[in-house]
Design goal:
This protein has 165 residues and is mainly alpha-helical. The protein folds into two domains: 2-89, Orthogonal Bundle (Arc Repressor Mutant, subunit A); 92-163. Helices cover 76% and strands 8% of the residues. It is built from six helices and two strands; from the N terminus they run ααααββαα. A two-stranded antiparallel sheet has the order 1-2.
């Protein structure tokens, strides 16, 4: 059984390192998110259970939960007759929507660069740059299409799973 617990801790640590770099968030916020993905996907985890599992202070957990809530990386539910909040990771489709926003932003920038370079390219290097940017812009558009398809598939799965509860 200890092997399963070690696996759990390793995965949370891997998630923590990944999210810390990806979202540029404090290590504790990243580990909270990893913990919620591993341990909170069914019913969610209370504030108290997060303190117990992670071993950080109340104020540190609270500050980082608020950060994750503001970033739409987590959400919470309440239960009738229970004053506690049960924190859960945001649905995967919602987390992928955040990537889609980055892709849209990147596409806009590439589009502006193409417009600019088409007006100003005056040497072989700038013409080469224009060709590269156009190719990259098309790649970003392809990635967006794949992301949209994936997000729609996850939304179908999430809707199905929620209707079966």
């Amino acid at each position: 059984m200890m092997s399963i617990e070690n696996d759990r801790l390793e995965i949370i640590e891997m998630f923590g390192n990944h999210f810390e770099k990806l979202y540029n968030i404090p290590p504790l916020a990243a580990r909270i998110l990893g913990t919620l993905i591993i341990d909170g996907c069914k019913t969610g985890l209370t504030f108290e259970s997060l303190i117990e599992k992670i071993g950080a202070s109340k104020s540190s957990i609270s500050t980082n939960l608020n950060l994750l809530l503001k970033m739409d990386q987590i959400s919470y539910i309440t239960k009738p007759g229970d004053r506690k909040k049960y924190f859960k990771p945001a649905d995967l489709s919602e987390r992928l929507d955040n990537y889609l926003k980055l892709i849209d932003s990147e596409y806009l920038i590439m589009d502006r660069i193409v417009d600019y370079r088409e007006k100003t390219a005056s040497c072989p290097e700038e013409i080469c740059n224009l060709q590269n940017v156009k190719a990259y812009r098309e790649h970003v558009l392809d990635v967006k299409k794949i992301f949209l398809k994936t997000i729609n598939e996850f939304k179908k799965i999430e809707i199905h799973n929620k209707s079966n509860k």
